[in-house]
Amino acid sequence: MEFKDYYATLGLTKSATDAEIKRAYRKLARQHHPDLNPGDKTAETRFKEINEANEVLGDPEKRRKYDELGANWRAYEQAPAGAPAGGPYGPFQDAGGTRYRTMTPEEMEGLFGGQDPFSDFFHTFFGAGGGTSGFTGASGRAGGRRGSRTPPRSRRGRDLEQPVDLTLEEVSAGTTRRLLIQRDGLERTVEVRIPAGVKDGARIRAAGEGGAAGDGGQAGDLYLTVHVRPNPQFERRGQDLYRRVELPVPTAVLGGEVTVPTLGGTPVRLRVPELTGQGRVFRLRGHGLPAVGKPDVRGDMYVTVDLRIPAHLSDDERTHYEALKGIQEPGT
């Protein structure tokens, strides 16, 4: 069993002050928040770990008890499975002579509160499956009630999955979806906000909007799996967009401007220099897609030039092209 180092989780040492713990938690929670990292399971796991660490270290009493546990956890690590609280592994004395006793499940629930408040570290190391809890607190008294069992935890509701199709325009601006969900035999409408910049395949979580739980437990979550429809004009690569634009031959030769459509609906004017060749690529800064959670941070748009050869020539156009040909090919 591996001991959970909550100080390391927040990037701190045991000597950290309350203010340092608070600052570290706020910074990391903002960085790894699921709403800012949709579909990122690593960020979701880190966010849970960060919240668990803050739940303990952010409370002076919980932190004190956790520090006492940290100093003696190896004695419990070596205890055989199912060792009784009154046996050789508790109560005991450490090198400083302080006596420790095993806390009861009721005390654990009173200390940490709620249903299933922490990770498997607590359920495994602290004996959440039954018998006595392995969490220790300093005391001169004998161990608490032995053989008491942790009350059964309420079953969590089932998570629901729902696919959702988005256009690239909706990805650019962000959008919402109203979904009809059935729970407990009743239909209800759930509105889920989808942040701008979301990627294809991302999972958007709506907490508590999934299946109902038994015995008054916590409802499951609703996950929207994003599918971004192909766009005939734009190709997406991360936050950047790629498209092609036609450029008339006279403009390519002499230079000028060409109108470039954007996802936002407002076209931009691209200035091209003279003698612009077929396939030349121009970058329009800030006209790509936004980063999730950072609408002001946008990618770029890359525009590839396609020379537009006229399908038909007017008499006047033919006259000018023939004159140009005569200049380019003297003597003909």
Describe the structure.
The structure is a single chain. This protein is an alpha+beta fold and 332 residues long. It has helices at 6-9, 18-32, 41-57, 60-77, 105-112, 120-125, 168-173, 249-254, 315-328, and strands at 92-93, 99-102, 136-138, 160-166, 175-183, 186-194, 203-206, 222-228, 235-237, 240-248, 256-260, 268-272, 281-284, 290-291, 294-298, 301-308. The chain has a four-stranded mixed beta sheet with strand order 9-10-16-13. A three-stranded antiparallel beta sheet has the order 1-2-3. Residues 80-115 and 122-150 have low confidence and may be disordered.
How is the topology of this model organized?
Blueprint: H1 6-9, H2 18-32, H3 41-57, H4 60-77, E1 92-93, E2 99-102, H5 105-112, H6 120-125, E3 136-138, E4 160-166, H7 168-173, E5 175-183, E6 186-194, E7 203-206, E8 222-228, E9 235-237, E10 240-248, H8 249-254, E11 256-260, E12 268-272, E13 281-284, E14 290-291, E15 294-298, E16 301-308, H9 315-328
Parallel strand pairs: 4-8, 10-16
Antiparallel strand pairs: 1-2, 2-3, 5-6, 7-8, 9-10, 11-12, 13-16, 14-15
